[in-house]
Write a structure and sequence with these properties.
Layout lengths: L37 E4 L1 H9 L11 E7 L4 E6 L5 E5 L8 E3 L4
Antiparallel strand pairs: 1-2, 1-5, 2-3, 3-4
């Protein structure tokens, strides 16, 4: 898979949103993360993926947090459309890669 658990190859930890410019409910900043929480990628994260020419392993859909790490500052998400499991920042390194979408 080529990338240490992040979206495709070479994620260097600089792709999330440290200061959101939207009304997104960022997991780890505005919403406390929990296993089972429904999420989508933040607009900043999606932009970073596009700019780097990576595939969106979520398939453009939502997923669920399946594991929390680093005291809730990172997590693993299983994407519903693709069944891919990847790691995302929830405040780790000042980055917020995910948006809460409701129940879980």
């Amino acid at each position: 898979d080529g990338g240490g658990g992040y979206d495709d190859e070479g994620y260097d930890g600089t792709g999330g949103s440290a200061e959101p410019e939207t009304d997104e409910r960022l997991v780890g900043m505005h919403v406390k993360p929990h296993v089972g929480q429904r999420v989508v990628k933040s607009e900043e994260r999606k932009r970073y993926i596009r700019e780097n020419g990576w595939d969106d392993l979520s398939g453009g859909g939502g997923g669920k947090i399946v594991e929390l790490m680093d005291d809730g500052r990172r997590c693993m998400v299983k994407w519903s459309k693709t069944s891919e499991v990847m790691e995302y920042a929830l405040g780790y390194g000042g980055l917020y890669d995910l948006v809460a979408t409701g129940g879980g």
